[in-house]
Design goal:
The protein is α/β, with parallel strands linked by helices. The chain is built from 8 helices and 8 strands; from the N terminus they run H-E-E-H-H-E-E-E-H-E-H-H-E-E-H-H. The longest helix is centred in the last third of the chain and has 21 residues.
């Protein structure tokens, strides 16, 4: 069952040093405490233009975390991770891999939507290394909360957020890596990459790689 935090009040505003979410992360590492505090995060400038923060959701003691790059347009509007077209493709891949989504925790390396406007459209713009670093304390808090045995990084940006900027998705696709908090890490393509691929064969190839990685993680956890 997807968890939605009960929010009574907004946390008091705090002044953060440049590009750091750390002052906004509460010492109490419960899901509701973290998700509530994240609503008041001002650790970087992305909050100014996003509709709302999109915090992680799912089983808070899951064996597996699925980590994406950042929320997209649909997620920004809904306030939930992976609910747009990429999320629906991920759900399909999870089902094929035999992993119930309700048994995993799903989140993003960056919690606010970064975009550029083109007329009335908001086009995805990848977060910078600065944004990823600023948001890192939230991911660390989620890792402390969930304590997963494994992480699947969806896309190169998510993988570099966990494994460092020298990590190459193409060179290490589907290979186990040593991760934080004694976890194991696998990296694969982001579902949006499969949706954007130029032809059917390439879309199917990327989708099959995602399913393959999910099945590998499922066999271990």
């Amino acid at each position: 069952m997807k968890l939605t935090p009960h929010i009574d009040t907004h946390p008091p505003a705090k002044k953060a040093p440049a590009d750091s979410a750390a002052p906004f992360v509460p010492e109490k590492r419960t899901y509701n405490a973290l998700a509530t505090a994240a609503e008041g995060c001002r650790g970087c400038e992305l909050y100014k233009h996003a509709t709302q923060v999109v915090f992680g959701e799912g089983a808070t003691k899951a064996s597996l975390i699925l980590l994406g790059e950042q929320p997209g347009d649909a997620e920004d509007l809904a306030g939930h991770p992976f609910v747009g077209p990429a999320g629906r493709l991920l759900d399909k891949a999870l089902e094929e891999a035999g992993i119930p989504r309700k048994e995993v925790y799903v989140t993003n390396a960056v919690k606010h939507f970064r975009f550029e406007e083109r007329g009335k459209r908001r086009l995805h713009k990848s977060p910078s290394a600065r944004h990823i670093k600023a948001c890192r304390p939230w991911l660390e808090a989620e890792l402390d909360l969930v304590q997963p045995a494994a992480l699947i990084c969806l896309g190169a940006t998510a993988a570099k957020a966990v494994l460092g900027n020298k990590f190459s998705l193409t060179k290490s696709l589907g290979e186990w890596q040593a991760g934080p908090r004694n976890s194991k890490v696998l990296a694969t393509f982001h579902p949006s990459a499969a949706l954007r691929a130029p032809d059917h064969d390439r879309r199917e190839e990327l989708y099959r790689e995602i399913v393959k990685t999910l099945k590998l993680a499922g066999s271990v956890i």
